[in-house]
Protein: Phosphoglucomutase
Amino acid sequence: MTTKRFDILWKCSEAFADQKPLPDGSTLIAASDGFHFSKDAIQIFIRMAAANGVRRLWIGENGLLSTPASSVVIREKIGPDGVKATCAFIFKACHNPDGPCEDFGVKLLMENGGPPADIFLDVIFDRSKSLLYYAIAYQQLDVDLSKLGVTTFKGPIEEFEVEIISSTDDYLKLTKSIFVFRLIKQLISSPNYDGLNGVSGVYAKRIFIEELGADESSLLNCDPMEDFGGCPSNLNLTYTKELAARMGLGKLCELNPPEFGAAVDADGDNYIIFGKNFFVKPSDSIAIIAANAKWAIPYFAAGLKGFARTITTSAALNEVAKELHVICHEVQNDQPKHTADLMDAEACSIYGEENFSIGSVNIREKDGMWGVLAWLSILALEKQVYT
Structure:
């Protein structure tokens, strides 16, 4: 653990607690994308949460919980006392290779499962520059992150609980309420999928192998690694070259590629879709999903509220919106809070970005696996209708 990383961790956590006092009996979520420092960061955060009067912590199994899954847990999971989580702290390495001297950051999700407003982040940052102290439990509160269940510690006022939860159960339950897994299972026998050695591989194994019956050989790089396999987890043809070659792209491509392939980045929020000898541009992908969502995704059978895209994403989505008689909102790049606000106002059902991001009203974060399942749902229904 480097001093710089520890400084980021304690300053961000303490500044948040200082600027947003937690109500008594609060529940928080601690998560990570599996990077090098993640388990140490979570163990430190456990002690800081205890010292700041938190009642309960929910932590994904082995410390793993993707950004979209964290949003699901905030919005859907209810504790034994009827309390939901107040926010989530996600420790991640962003889209860069990780290792002892590489990137480290903290992502926050608020009560609605979405990101905080920029003005609040600015306040936290400004406060972090003047902090002279942090609260941390003197007692070592080591928790086995690999063992599901509750560990209880005696606190100064009341007991402090740390619960290790399934990384995938809540997310899987939500996706099953959105998509028809039975139809997708009839479609796929070997979907080619790349998890880029991050947390997203955990969800790929649970959904594609355990739920949809795909063969393990169809999954690439789905074992989380602390350094993401030495590569950035960004999505493009360079960093997904193994999958791209399998799909018939590049100099060393396969001669008889499959019909469908997909990749999701290490923390689960971006995706890329491949067909036989081609890949789908993100602006086209969001437009295709939006155009077919009402009839291919049961969740949207009652209709769509509207769409949103970043200003640098092509206007293909606008044309779909015109055809469906809904509004397509344009939002600034790197302003996810604006999209979450549109969804809270019931003005947006689906949104996308030019950087291979997609999201839906089901949560308040980008969700690469949602995009993959949306494509499979469209293809499954096309096959059912035309065969």
User: Anything to note?
Assistant: The first strand starts at residue 27 and ends at 32. The chain has two domains: 3-167, 170-386.
